[in-house]
Amino acid sequence: MPHYTRRHSHFKGLSIINFKFTNKVLQNEVHEAVLNIHVQELEPRHNTSFEGEDHFTINLQVSRVTRNSQGSKASVPYTDNSVKMSRKDLKIGKWLKVNVTTMVAEFFRLPREYLAVVVRVQDSRNRMSLVVPHPSSESNHALMPYIEVSLKDDSHRRTRRHIGMDCTESTKEVRCCRYPLVVNFEEFGWDWIIAPKLYDANYCSGECPYSFLQKYPHTHLVHLAAPQGSGGPCCAPRKMSSISMLYFDHDLNIIYGTIPGMVVDSCGCS
Prior knowledge:
Its main location: secreted. The protein is mainly β.
């Protein structure tokens, strides 16, 4: 998931949105890419032709801006969708998702400094002006378009012995086990996180009897010797993994980052 830059230009009267990907991300294959755009009516009109209509058909076209053989800018359309929006959605604005997997995958295979995109949005009957925010000093940064990219896992999968147990709340297991836990950032009021809004974090819980999933036998021996201040084996994460996040920094830039130690993959006694 990249972040947009503040650099922007225009093509045929439309603002070009430049997305920048890190070299590390560009080394992967694209599984899926989704463009998120916020669509809103620019100037609500009181038009008698709208009477009796609660929903409107909106046409969306996403194109990539490239250079032709003469070196001039050219627009290559990749998606052309129609969506239904209610009168309320048009007035207050709504986030729409557009699949741009083919466009992003082609860019990854032959990358440039930026992926330059233009978005055309209009009422199917051309009765109203619609707007998609673009990077500029006057823009509402919380409504900037952004791309979510899922990368293919090319690692060689091998059958291996899993250390640790997986349980559910209904499992009658008192020993150390990994349990499912879904964390919802919105419940904490963390609105500065754009994506994911929730994720599977998991947690460890249970007792650690003698020799059960012991990572360090020394811990059990110390417990038997019982020096003052020592503790017994503790059920804790054995292995943890990272998640990718899209969030706002202090300057309201949209940042893509990989945060380590966010998911418990296995539990054991230490």
